[in-house]
Amino acid sequence: MSVIETHDLAKSYGGFGALHGLNLSMPAGSVFALVGASGAGKTTTIKILLNMIAPSRGTARILGIDSRALRPPVLAQIGYVSESQALPSRLRVGQFFDYLRPCYSTWDSQLEQQLRAQLRLPPGRRISDLSHGMRLKLALACAMAYRPKLLILDEPFSGLDALTRDEMIGEFLREPREMSILISSHELDEVERLATHVAFLDEGRLLFQGTLPELREHAREVFSWSGHSRAEAPHAGHAPLRTIFVSMVSAARAVR
Amino acid sequence: MIWPVFRKDWTLLWPLAVLVTLIQIACEWAVYKFGFFGATPLARELLRLLTPAWFIGVIALAVAVVHEDTVPGVDQDWLIRPLSRTDLLLAKMVFVLVTVCLPMFIMNLVDELALGFAVLPSLGDALYKEMYLFVCLLIPAMAVASVTRNMIDLVVLVAALLVLYAASLWVSATLFGVDRCPTCDTSIFWLQSLLQHLGLLAGSVAVLCLQYYQRRTRVSRGVLAAGVVLLIIVQLPWNAAFAIQSWIGVPRGSSPAAIRIAADPAEITDGAGASLSRQDSARRATKALLQGDVDTAVLSLKSVRGARDVPVVFNVPLRIAGLMQDEFLAVDHAAFAVVDVHGEALYRGTGSDRRAVPLILDPTQPAVARQKFEIPGSVYKRIKSRAVSLVVDYSLTLRTVVAQRKLRAADGEVRSPETGLCQSGADPTIAYIRCKHIGRAPNCHAATLYGPDGRHNPPVYSCGSDYRPFIPSPMNITALTGIDLPIRDAYGAAHYDVDGTDLQHSYILLKVYETGGHFHRTVVSNLQPPPAD
Fold this sequence. Notes:
The complex is a heterodimer.
Chain A: E1 2-13, E2 16-22, E3 25-27, E4 31-36, H1 42-49, E5 57-62, E6 65-66, H2 72-75, E7 78-82, H3 93-100, H4 109-118, H5 132-144, E8 150-154, H6 162-173, E9 180-185, H7 188-194, E10 197-202, E11 205-211, H8 212-225, H9 241-255
Chain B: H1 2-34, H2 41-67, H3 85-114, H4 119-146, H5 151-176, H6 189-214, H7 217-233, H8 238-248, E1 260-263, E2 267-270, H9 278-290, H10 294-305, E3 312-321, E4 327-340, E5 345-350, E6 357-358, E7 361-362, E8 365-375, H11 377-383, E9 388-408, E10 413-416, E11 420-426, E12 430-437, E13 444-450, E14 460-463, E15 479-486, E16 507-526
Antiparallel strand pairs in B: 1-3, 2-3, 3-8, 4-5, 4-6, 4-9, 7-8, 9-16, 10-11, 11-12, 12-15, 13-14, 13-16
Helix pairs in contact in B: 1-2, 1-3, 2-3, 2-4, 3-4, 4-6, 5-7, 6-7, 9-10
């Protein structure tokens, strides 16, 4: 069963096409990485999925519901963390939790306390006074405290120091939980440590989607006709995600 | 889900809400201290300062609460929270009601009760006023806020809308002149104003729905811009507006059918076709602009460019019959035509005064009231040698006394449902009377000062040109009206039978007038040619 499905999804801003007929399918329980360079259409896809913007064409379904018809009961099952998320900056950390707690029927106060302690979130600090990393941690804690079925992370590692990244990945995202995770990122090393499934986007087009083993299999084929030597191709299955991604994007652009 | 949003907004905005409430308390204190005669300079000064501060405060609060969860944009936190749009909008409205309207309601009620007005009317009055304020001021402020992200955006948008409003006004005044607004400055302008308020409310509700349910900021801004233009161009025609006024008016006093008006031949009293210089026209236009009278300014500017006429003024003697004692007629509108013997209209115009003008009888001819009309000098030159007549179509309103009360001329007090609570006072040159009302205040009074021996000064009338039903002012729950009665002329030019030497034993007779029927009459007056040179 898919938690996210898009069909022929397209979005244009004026004359600029940000997405061109995207067909995605994210299986339930997976950690699905949406990988692409800046401007590839990752954030646009996520914003359409969450009904923040309307698609120009096509449909997107999230947790089985058309994204244009998202209502509070479905939103209560989705967690969202984004580097561009505008949190109510004049609230203090504790006040933000107080505000959100009654909004979610599944809010787990014990888990909230645990997350706040682990992430060392200062309750009395204003959100506007928090560093970028602390703000992302706060958003993550708020998104996980109600045990969402689907967690969407839009560039969650962007601008974070290595220590904080490790902390976020090691302590929170790799722990087995009953949720699906969609991560959009161009930080490929982190994605590789987390993802079970991956989709490559380039200039609004889908280049590949599948499991990591399927990706490596696919990579061998791409390597074999994208200028690498025959001797190199068998090793493509063990190449880092970064190398595979760069090769696939280069090949796709060459074709275009 | 209204409560979490309300609580969050309160957490963020309580200092502003408290500040606005403090301003409201200070205003109410100033109104109380101002009393009937404004004797406390501090209260007067405070009222002058706090009134704009209060306006800015309540609007800032309504805007700020909307901006706490801005609608335009795609990164707002509330978009991904399980909040229904209706709950979000309601939370904002409840916040405004609780922080602006509720404190004001309580203070107004206390003010009314302190003045001794009955509980139930005071309660209804205060409630009505707060609902009016909410619907006509706060909802529109929230609608404009909902299409902007922050205060700077808002200021820019409001400035743009003001420019559009001014441009529309200018175009309309240039194209249509005084006809651009047939009811402006007249006694029934409140109908046009009501139409504008309804339009404002409908536009605001449309914008709020578009924003909160569709998030169509561009369309909403278009609605605002279209609304501003419509405020100028949608105008009630005079006859339709007067028909509505006649329909909703409460008949009092004489039946309009019994009132007869006939006109004697009209006489020229001023002007005979002389030219007006460019400088005079320009001076007139500048003066009108400085006074904010766009219509007169445009007319004067036109006369700078084109025909430079001095108007010819006709005086029409009117004989009125069928009125009872303590009644008079007011001319709300007079459309006239100069017609020849075949009935062909040679010129059409309207009376120059747009306010309701009382037809006061001429002291030298007690059966006659006089009214003046102007026609351009160039028109007069064309018709002066012909046999023509003036056909005037009047829209009239009967004003009749509904109550009269006596009170001592010095430090007197009287209370009644018609007059409200009135107090009198005096200084060396005038005796004065001031009344505070709740609900709709009558806007036409006459007061006569009587001495202990029964002699009296001429009555002094104070009649507003406005037939509106109760439309509250945003700030004050009580309306203050009053009349000054001169008792001594500082220069000794005028003498009064009752001159203030025995004010302790004098009294004031206060008459309250209400509108009776509203009706049309057409009168015909022959134009008398000017005497031969």
